[in-house]
Amino acid sequence: MPKSKRNRPVTLSKTKKKPGLERKGKVVTDIKDAVEHYANAYVFTYDNMRNQKLKDLREQLKSSSRIFLAGKKVMQIALGRSPADEAKTGLHKLSKFLQGDTGLFFTNLPRDDVERLFREFEEHDFARTGSIATETVELKEGPLEQFTHEMEPFLRKQGLPVRLNKGAVELVADHIVCEEGKPISPEAAQTLRLLGMQMATFRLYLVCRWSSDDFETYKEGLAQLRAGWHIYAANMLHLLSNGVGGGAGVAEQGRQCLADALRHARRPSGLPGPRPLLRRCRPPQLGAHLRIHGALRHGRHHALWAHNMAFGRRLLPFVGRPAPALAQDYMLTQALLPSTLHLRSYGEVETAAVAPLYPSASMVFFQWAFAGVTVGLVAGAVLGRMSVKAWMAFVPLWTTLSYTHLGRRLLFHWGVMDYSGGYVVHLAAGVSGYTAAYWVGPRRKEEAGGGNLVVMVAGAGILWMGWTGFNGGDPFSANTDSSVAVLNTHICALTSILAWICCDVAVRGRPSVVGAVQGMITGLVCITPAAGLVQGWAALLMGVASETLPCYTMNAAMSLKVDDTLGILHTHAVSGVLGGVLTGVFATCSFRGLIYGVRAGGVQVLKQVAAALFVAAWNVVATSIILVVVRAFVPLRMTEEELLAGDIAIHGEQAYTNFSSGTNCSLSHETIEVGNS
């Protein structure tokens, strides 16, 4: 059967192929003609090339000279690479210098005139991305009168921490646009252009000269040619670390996303960690549901309104304006924490704002993980008896009234040192969880027992891995603080494990796997507020301390009537306070701990203690009020019948069942019997 003509492809546009070989051949011919017509040939290099300026120079010298900028290999072929194929005697010597940013200059002008021309030629222009800054440009905090209010969003995209104050653009903190001797970023190049600062100078340097009877090189040109390679390498490193646009660094963005992934690895199972496996919490699916629901729903609320309440523009002393953090204009701008400046009584900035080199979307996702982990920890204290409906009502209220009001803004401005959430995550969750356990009441006595210790160890490994992102991602930058934080995290955790094992051997006569896992958790929590602020030897001491005090409080609390299912108060609240106070003692950063300065360090320790008391008091009051209000509408605790029946009564399915047999059952006498069995 013949082919249909309808299937014939029809080209709607025709383009001519680029005459690559013909064009290269013409360049070779033109260079050989120039060798015949001009007495001198020079190799030159350049800095901060500007095409229009070079075009003007060509036009100025076209009567006596000719300039070639082409492929290096093409120009080498035209001149000759060796004595055997050179166009004229000695021309192959020029070919050796045609490397990097170089060109050919043919002329009949006297040598002195050429040297003076190249020495005096310079054209100033605005710097481009990758250029080396010739001076440090720093903008001081205060109004930027040269910019109108319409430019405020654009300035934020360029990384400037600005805001509108009565219609005027105001810089909320000192900002360094560029530093002398370092490559200029795309955002800095735009800012310098707006400021009218020309940092680039287009210059030409002679590298070598050839004539029929002479050949010489120029030291200045050779030095510039060698320096060009170093500049090229520096620019490549700069582009790899800061990207070429979008306001975010490639390396910073990749590092932050990795930290986010490690942290979110803790969330799928609810994420108080491996400790649900230390206790047999009936019903088991209810415990998993509370943790998953709390972590995921709290994360959603964080993105919808709580992120801006914690980090956005100021509304009240403790809280920012609630607003969604999902709009494209917000997510693509450079992150800025916090957006509201706080000044001392005499006008000095208490703590400057933080502006990491990645967009706000990465920061929202990073803080989202904090939010999910925190509410998951609260769930760990009320496992096995809290009503699902009451929990669903509790989570958004606690997100709004407690978690976002934890003094993030206030503590930050006070200069309280909490590197990665020892107070606002662990202390807050521990106190809130213990308070919730008091209001909900204890578990049934027959439910208290052991769990699956083998799977617990696997969960401990996942938790430990996630903590690397927990502390390693908090400097908001790939710097030395991040490296120190990761190392100190592992040092403290290992030390705490060994200390807990030694304590078990001394007291019980044998080591305990449960004790080792508890030691790991208390060590990780204790180092969290200090991870990047202390030295390695201090992390060792904190590891020993993180075993001693939580172990004592855990044993001393046995006589109390509050049933904290997973011991959140001891492993998180006590360890978090201990780590925060010891941070004030051992810190080596600009704040200086007690041992590095008695006067300033003593004030810092008092700040750490006051902050711990503030966070604890706030969470006790806020959590109690929320649960009292929820209790007026929904019972906080499941009925005894539901607790007796277990997961079948609550979810219509069992934790361990054959799905082919069906799981949907209604609450009845038979259901209770199944639950008992």
Automatic annotation (TrEMBL):
<dbReference type="InterPro" id="IPR040637">
    <property type="entry name" value="Ribosomal_uL10-like_insert"/>
</dbReference>
<dbReference type="InterPro" id="IPR043164">
    <property type="entry name" value="Ribosomal_uL10-like_insert_sf"/>
</dbReference>
<feature type="transmembrane region" description="Helical">
    <location>
        <begin position="609"/>
        <end position="634"/>
    </location>
</feature>
<protein>
    <recommendedName>
        <fullName>Ribosome assembly factor mrt4</fullName>
    </recommendedName>
</protein>
<feature type="transmembrane region" description="Helical">
    <location>
        <begin position="487"/>
        <end position="507"/>
    </location>
</feature>
<dbReference type="InterPro" id="IPR001790">
    <property type="entry name" value="Ribosomal_uL10"/>
</dbReference>
<feature type="domain" description="Ammonium transporter AmtB-like">
    <location>
        <begin position="358"/>
        <end position="656"/>
    </location>
</feature>
<feature type="domain" description="Large ribosomal subunit protein uL10-like insertion">
    <location>
        <begin position="127"/>
        <end position="196"/>
    </location>
</feature>
<feature type="compositionally biased region" description="Basic residues">
    <location>
        <begin position="1"/>
        <end position="18"/>
    </location>
</feature>
<dbReference type="GO" id="GO:0000027">
    <property type="term" value="P:ribosomal large subunit assembly"/>
</dbReference>
<keyword id="KW-1133">Transmembrane helix</keyword>
<comment type="function">
    <text>Ribosomal protein P0 is the functional equivalent of E.coli protein L10.</text>
</comment>
<keyword id="KW-0472">Membrane</keyword>
<dbReference type="Pfam" id="PF00909">
    <property type="entry name" value="Ammonium_transp"/>
</dbReference>
<comment type="similarity">
    <text>Belongs to the universal ribosomal protein uL10 family.</text>
</comment>
<dbReference type="Pfam" id="PF00466">
    <property type="entry name" value="Ribosomal_L10"/>
</dbReference>
<dbReference type="GO" id="GO:0005886">
    <property type="term" value="C:plasma membrane"/>
</dbReference>
<dbReference type="InterPro" id="IPR043141">
    <property type="entry name" value="Ribosomal_uL10-like_sf"/>
</dbReference>
<dbReference type="Pfam" id="PF17777">
    <property type="entry name" value="RL10P_insert"/>
</dbReference>
<dbReference type="InterPro" id="IPR001905">
    <property type="entry name" value="Ammonium_transpt"/>
</dbReference>
<feature type="transmembrane region" description="Helical">
    <location>
        <begin position="565"/>
        <end position="588"/>
    </location>
</feature>
<feature type="region of interest" description="Disordered">
    <location>
        <begin position="1"/>
        <end position="24"/>
    </location>
</feature>
<dbReference type="InterPro" id="IPR029020">
    <property type="entry name" value="Ammonium/urea_transptr"/>
</dbReference>
<feature type="transmembrane region" description="Helical">
    <location>
        <begin position="448"/>
        <end position="467"/>
    </location>
</feature>
<feature type="transmembrane region" description="Helical">
    <location>
        <begin position="519"/>
        <end position="545"/>
    </location>
</feature>
<dbReference type="InterPro" id="IPR033867">
    <property type="entry name" value="Mrt4"/>
</dbReference>
<dbReference type="GO" id="GO:0005737">
    <property type="term" value="C:cytoplasm"/>
</dbReference>
<dbReference type="InterPro" id="IPR024041">
    <property type="entry name" value="NH4_transpt_AmtB-like_dom"/>
</dbReference>
<feature type="transmembrane region" description="Helical">
    <location>
        <begin position="390"/>
        <end position="411"/>
    </location>
</feature>
<comment type="similarity">
    <text>Belongs to the ammonia transporter channel (TC 1.A.11.2) family.</text>
</comment>
<feature type="transmembrane region" description="Helical">
    <location>
        <begin position="365"/>
        <end position="383"/>
    </location>
</feature>
<dbReference type="GO" id="GO:0008519">
    <property type="term" value="F:ammonium channel activity"/>
</dbReference>
<feature type="transmembrane region" description="Helical">
    <location>
        <begin position="423"/>
        <end position="441"/>
    </location>
</feature>
<comment type="function">
    <text>Component of the ribosome assembly machinery. Nuclear paralog of the ribosomal protein P0, it binds pre-60S subunits at an early stage of assembly in the nucleolus, and is replaced by P0 in cytoplasmic pre-60S subunits and mature 80S ribosomes.</text>
</comment>
<keyword id="KW-0963">Cytoplasm</keyword>
<dbReference type="GO" id="GO:0005730">
    <property type="term" value="C:nucleolus"/>
</dbReference>
<keyword id="KW-0539">Nucleus</keyword>
<keyword id="KW-0812">Transmembrane</keyword>
